[in-house]
Predict the structure.
Amino acid sequence: MKKTQRVNLAALAGIAAISMVVAGCSSGGSSGSSSSGSSSTALTASAPGITKTQILIGSHQPLTGVAAPGYDEIAPASNAYFQYVNAHGGIYGRKIVYKFLNDQYDPTITSTVVHQLVLQDNVYAIFNGLGTPTHLAVAPYLNAQKVPDVFVASGCECWNAPSKWPDTFGWQLDYIREGKILGNYIKQHFKGKKIGYFFQDDEFGQDGVKGLNMEIPKSQVVAKESYNPTVTNVAPQVTALKAAGAQVVVSFSVPAFTALLKLTSLKLSFNPQLVVSNVGSDPITLAGLLEAFAKKGGATVSGNALTQGIITDAYLPSLGATSNSWIKLFTKIRSQYLPKLPLDGNVGYGLAAAYTFVQAMLKAGRNPTRQDLISAINGGLPQGPSLTPYAYSATNHNGATGAEMTMIKNGVQVPIGPVQVTDTSPTGAITTYSTAQPTAPASGIPSP
Amino acid sequence: MTLVRHLAAAVGVAVVLGVISVMLSAYRDYQMAEVAAYVVAVAGLSVLIGLSGQISIGNGAFMAVGGYASALLLLHLGWPLGVVFLASVVIAAAAGAVFGIAAARLRGPYLAGATLMLAVALPSIAIQYAGVFGGDQGLSVTITTPAFLGATFPPTRWLAWVTCAAALIALILLANLGHSRIGRSWRALRDDEVAAALAGLNVARLQVLAFVISAACAGLGGALLAAVTGIVAPGAYTLTLSIALLTATVVGGLGTLPGALWGSLLLVLVPSFLTNVAASYGLSGAASSSVPIAVYGVVLIVVMLVFPAGIQGALRRLFGPASPASGTPLSVWRRQTSASEHQEEGTR
């Protein structure tokens, strides 16, 4: 279930240089913005969900049920950012109203709540709908109705289908790119070592493995073990990895299975270097799960001690980077609008995604139609809190294009390599992205 | 004779539903289609439990069979919708027959346990054989509105028409079946298996038949629901679905077709209504999202406490034998309602 989303922590950096470049593009990019005129243009009800005073958007989120722990923080975090924007002038004076409904991670309910949002509530757009199987249930419908379907909370490469689904956009780093970047690191730093794969047997794990295979020499891979997310005994897989003599285990797993992998390995006295995908490596979530699972088994462990040394990657700035301008902004907004939640990976994710949405809305113009929002994103978006530029163009609807390698130290992800970007093709090079990250705007709100 | 009466009433109901669908908003049409899909599945379960006296906690699995069958047929063979629905019914009935025969020796809680296993196990087949069934992300089901209705015709209204038509046909058949020799035989063996056997009824065959009918209904319901929601995926057919069907059957009124309608309306409308109420009180926060679910549970408990015979039983009591609903095809089982109340008392 979880496969989909993700989050990470991380942190971000800024916009300054790039936002100027993009400001240039934005006027050229959005073809249809007849409305993006001067500030004197009167506000009108330019599209469904948009009135003179507000912009209504909707989402489907797992607020209860199996996928809820952790992921139920994302939409409230996005909402916190929208409230912050609303309190500071809104979007050209309009307030964002974010209505997120509970789909319990059940595609049937997703379909129902999205029909409600579109047909009854008349939302302008669906934002950050969470989950691959759930969102797949509604992407065809949203595109048929020409409802903008932006920044899906899932790393499935499937959202990048501009000809089939022109109104759908991904946002987080897709799993193929992530697999390539992790694979490249392994190829360079664990030369000649025996590598084992551990992955969720669905599109999340399989896309990840696709990316890994593009980089890691076949001869080094000694075992490929998959797990089914409904079967919590992973001893057979871990035994096979151990028997194959794997020295490095790379894991495309959700947090619960990263924890099970770690604990089962401990039990079997198997101690490989772990390399874990971003989805399954949020240190706060992992530490909690490790302690909870161990307790069920009658043991006491220190979560942070067990996550120590895990290698992973991040496409948002590390939450531990307290001097980073984006983390400062997130900390400020969280303490003011979301005091009940900690600033963990899920909250960081929700805030960053909401920031991206505000960027897109500002670019779409003062009185945007639905098509204006699509055109605005197709024209490219400035980087914002992401560590890497977005891939958005008329022919590419992927979001983040890369990540940095990090290691978990004392419960915090610490960068251990440069920010790298790549594409989703087997031959596409992985290059270092050395442009300094733009800093967060002092106002906390992107400039139009 | 009965058939003619049911058909005439069904035509009347179809006209009324058609008018309603035009008056309702696009989203209400969508909900109407959802209700129609659930009614079929719930009615099938109602026949199984209320008439034949068996219990199934696994009818969600047969909905999955019907849903996946229709998705695969549409995807690979592109058959017309009506044929696809019919084929889904046949396939689900076949699955029901296989399971029903295997479970024919099981009674009461043991049968329930076996069907429970089915509900839990079947969806994971879709994950095991991801190449065929699309794994966790499932298969999408695309229903196109016919061109002759015009480009501006609301797609959800077309969905409502299709599902209501299919549901009406299924309900007519069930109503007739309930009135037939088979229906009487089911009631006989439900009330006393030994007496029924002594009277010459083939108990095992009748029970398997009831199981097959309920699986076929669930299959049609699953196919309709897949058409409405646009996807079949394992996440849609969890144990929760099977229990929701059982809930709707019992709360609506066991063994009655109108009861299936009340139960399905409850299933579709109450959670969405409660969510909206919660949202309008600003309760869309993460923790408070459990509130609608909790309130839904309370509603179910209250209904069962106040109306032990279900909503249909309560209506019957309120309006007496001259129920205003009499004469519609949905009320043809009114007489049996009292029988099933008896049965309830007897089993306690």
Remarks:
- The domain at 175-314 of chain A is CATH 3.40.50.2300 (Rossmann fold).
